[in-house]
């Protein structure tokens, strides 16, 4: 780590871990993060406002992002894990999603796809290892972060523990970064808090994860998140959902997918659109405004 | 939109109302500057939730509605309150209140509007923060203006464009009027709160004519600026007219400049920089562009400034016009007019002076003291003309210097103006028909007398003057004719003060007018040098012959190439008529021997050349011995006289004492043309100081039958003297001479034109008439400006002589060269 970029990155990581010179606090659910206004405002337009003086947050020097677990939660609230990853991103320009929890075994074995499923070798660098870190190193850092989070956690909720390392090693098949649900949530947070870089990163992570874990039952949940917590005009992960389902039509036989698709009219329409081989949704919007009304009309019928 | 979601229509609506309720309450707080207790997270989250649930449009409309109500109900009333009586117009469009009252009330109003605008900006900034997600998702996706832009439009419509009450002007109109009123106060020198106005201008600049926010449809440009420019134009138009009437040109210039600077400053401090070029244009139009003519023609205008050497004020005028037009047409025109006026005056004076024969001659040219009464009169007149010529040249140069100086000192040596000045100078110089002659005379006079006792630098300056004025002359060929004539006399009569300076002049002319121009002049100098060598050679030759005859006449000779020298310069006009084949003068043997000797010597050196003796141009040194008068020794005098005079005097050598010869006899024995004979006899027998002969009867005129005898009693206080001959110097031509010169000049121009035409046609073979004309004029422009009619005549003549033919079938008149 010798270049100026690397030095800066290291410096940021140290500032974050030590909490030195922190001038603002973000909390969500059981997490509290001591952050630096300059760092977060540089990446998110949203945080400009609470870091300013106009509102109560500015006066207090802290913001509490309402978490899903709390009462009268809805789609507008945040998963504290996603917020944690966002903050992690602010300082590392990278984040590690916790691997998937073991989901109930798929209803039916999907032989065809199991055969196709890529074999994940831990020794092969994961998709996020673009920074040249080996998986092992990444793991270590992940542990550190986790621990830091946990220390704070205990004050809130001592009962929660993590088994990060053991799980990821025991279940190599559910790859490290293959958490489609979490990527979808991070993506939604990135859109909500206006962090374009994170939005991009989460999109690519989601795409990779969907390629690997499309058969996991969590995919239905991810699809739902994509369609309920992100705006229609932000196509990034919606397109991936549609593509994954139409690449693997067998998914539609699954009850979890079935109910999701049935519930979400937009997904419904986009799949239909795709099935007829029409242009991708984003292009439609750009190219032909006239179709806009038509599209609404069709959706109304659906 | 139909609903495909689980929650159902009603559920979502209920939810929306509740969420909007939270937001509305918060917005209320924000607008009453009470936001510090609000949680941004909560507001943002709620707005986010509404948009997530696809209620972006409803939210947008609700916010807009909220703002509209707020502006219309709360803000507007607050501002209208400040519209106090002094700001409202009465029926005649004027307020009845004093300026101070108006200013104070205006400032209150401006302040309240400024406050409202700034509050609105701040609040909408905060709302935008809360609605960030809506702006991004809903507005972008549905091509709606951002909520901020929308609310600015609402401000415009609710505050500025709504009439204060029915049938009264809108706040925008009132605002415009108040600002204009304050600016007027500023122009009148009263202090105003510039920043306050600027704040309101910021507002107008931040608002647009429509919700599309087209950049050049800012409210400022659309509503305020236009009115501002109109009213300013009216103001300056009136002010300019008043100043032209009431003040002087210098003050006007200073005032105009100050006004422009003021408006500049005003744009910076009070209005908008974007207006600077436009208001500049208005002020320039009204105070300069439309007034320039009036300003220049003021009593204290440009001609007054030139006359009184007000260089600084001229520079102010220049600066003003340069500002509006790089060509400076009005000033240029004025300057040209002045030059033409002053130049025409000089020309007129020169003509008047040359014609004022009755005036006593100021010249001290007593050496040419004319023997005859009428001759004396005409000689004086001729002197008068020379003086006029010198004065003309000096005046013209003075004029040029004066305007050059103005151009340099006041017009920053501007190219356009100086070109125009030069053009006008050329016009007036060429408008004067005697220009060529006068310039040559000026040089002549300086060569003979002017440069005596002058330093090299002064001589240089004099030569430069001549060249300067020569540069303007278009008829260079005429000048050449005169110069040759004058130079010829200077060289042959040894009148030139310094041959070195003469040569310097030629060199300068060569640089200025080109090689071909000086070719013949240089040939003249060459002839002079060759002749000197020749005369020396001959003298040596004679010495070697061993003929040590002390009585032998010494010969000095100038052999002149016939084509180069304008020998007719020595003939008087009357002489030239019908005397082309002048009979050979009869020489006495002593002279004839020398003549024949030289002719032999010359033909040995240059075979095949014919020498023609120009006796009329020669002079002779003779020694005269006079019998002693009572008690004195015999006196001898060295005299210099013309060759003719020598021939006449030699006749008396052979004449017994007391005898006399008649005029006719002299004529027969010498064969001197009668005219020259008379003139020479006049100087020998009439002029007081050189009366070597006695004439009978004594009268001033030489008449047929007069008899002459040797004047034994001649006395002179000088041992050496010169016997002058009437009118040998270079004088202004008489009318006859001038006509002659003109005719000759036209002839030589005719030849030059023919030569040019033939040259062109030889090269081009076929050429259209118009093109031939242009090319001919171009070719000849270095020498003179050919007259088109003359060219046509020459072409006709060339066709007659079968150099050219018309091309019959050509669509335009054309000619063909015939080899």
What does this structure look like?
- The complex is a heterodimer of chains A (302) and B (819).
- Chain A has helices at residues 4-18, 37-43, 48-51, 56-60, 80-92, 111-116, 135-157, 164-170, 180-192, 196-213, 218-229, 236-247, 255-263, 265-275, 281-287, 291-301; strands spanning 24-28, 31-35, 62-65.
- Chain A is mainly alpha-helical and 302 residues long.
- Chain A folds into 3 domains: 1-96, Potassium Channel Kv1.1, Chain A; 112-174, no CATH class; 213-302, no CATH class.
- In chain A, a hairpin with a 2-residue loop joins β1 and β2 (31-35).
- With 819 residues, chain B is mostly helical.
- Chain B has helices spanning 8-31, 40-52, 56-80, 99-130, 132-141, 147-160, 171-187, 194-206, 219-246, 249-269, 276-289, 292-296, 302-307, 311-324, 329-355, 373-410, 415-431, 435-450, 456-472, 476-492, 499-513, 515-544, 573-576, 589-605, 643-653, 663-670, 674-685, 735-764, 769-780, 788-800, and strands at 619-626, 635-642, 661-662, 693-696, 707-710, 720-722, 766-768, 804-806, 814-817.
- Chain B has a 3-stranded mixed β-sheet. Chain B has a 3-stranded antiparallel β-sheet with strand order 3-5-4. A 3-stranded antiparallel β-sheet of chain B has the order 7-9-8.
- Mean pLDDT of chain B is 80; it is low at 1-11, 357-378 and 572-581.
